[in-house]
Design brief:
By secondary structure, the chain is of the alpha+beta class. The protein is built from four helices and nine strands, in the order αββαββββββαβα. Strands 1-2-8-6-7-4-3-9 form an eight-stranded antiparallel β-barrel.
């Protein structure tokens, strides 16, 4: 066997070993991401689904911030509010909420939940509910009013009153992109796989 042939065979073996090693590393990294993602998805705490995007609610000259959920309905609402603020007329109902028509529809991801004081809820796809009490029903969460006690919420939301003018608007710089997970709170594995492949191939693209 010639020395040249032996060198070529040795080089081929090294390339094959390197390729196998890259595949192994890629699969281990992907497995790690999947395990971490699975642990996160097992956590049903509402705050795990919450992003730090904000919407403002103004009632009778008083403004309070809302921390938005990361779901399709919230993203659609933020996109709508980027066009202009929305003013709605809400009425007290049931001793636990003020609610009324948005004037447009949003995508729903309804689930049987118990809404809590401060929750901002989408009902039937086109109604917004602001809670100062609790109620169990099939709702889509939009967000939560920050930092108010139940008594403070009752005052801010004019509990018990009718024809309450409520303005929904965005702070400067808010966008409709609420995170790098999908609307079910799961990691996008295709994006992770692409990133791992780029890193292992030596690409400097991110």
């Amino acid at each position: 066997m010639s020395p040249i042939y032996e060198q070529g065979n040795f080089a081929t073996e090294n390339i094959n070993k390197l390729a196998i090693m890259k595949i192994f590393i890629r699969n281990m990294l992907l497995l790690t991401v999947l395990i971490m993602s699975g642990c996160s998805s097992d956590n049903n705490d509402v705050m795990a689904q919450t992003m730090m995007q904000k919407m403002n609610i103004t009632i009778d000259g008083v403004t309070k911030p809302v921390t938005m959920m990361d779901n399709a309905a919230s993203r659609a609402l933020v996109a709508r509010l980027q066009e202009s603020p929305v003013t709605v007329t809400l009425n007290s109902s049931g001793g636990f909420e003020i609610w009324g028509a948005l004037g447009f529809s949003l995508p729903t991801s309804n689930e049987q939940i118990t809404a809590q004081p401060g929750d901002v809820i989408l009902y039937n796809g086109s109604n917004i509910c602001l809670f100062y009490g609790s109620n169990s029903w099939s709702y889509t969460r939009l967000g939560h009013i920050d930092g108010l006690t139940e008594n403070e919420l009752r005052t801010f939301l004019h509990a018990g009153e009718s024809n309450i003018n409520v303005m929904l608007w965005l702070p400067a710089g808010t966008t409709a992109s609420l995170g790098d997970v999908n609307e079910d709170g799961e990691v996008n594995i295709n994006d992770v796989t692409s990133l791992i492949d780029m890193l292992l191939s030596g690409s400097n693209k991110v």
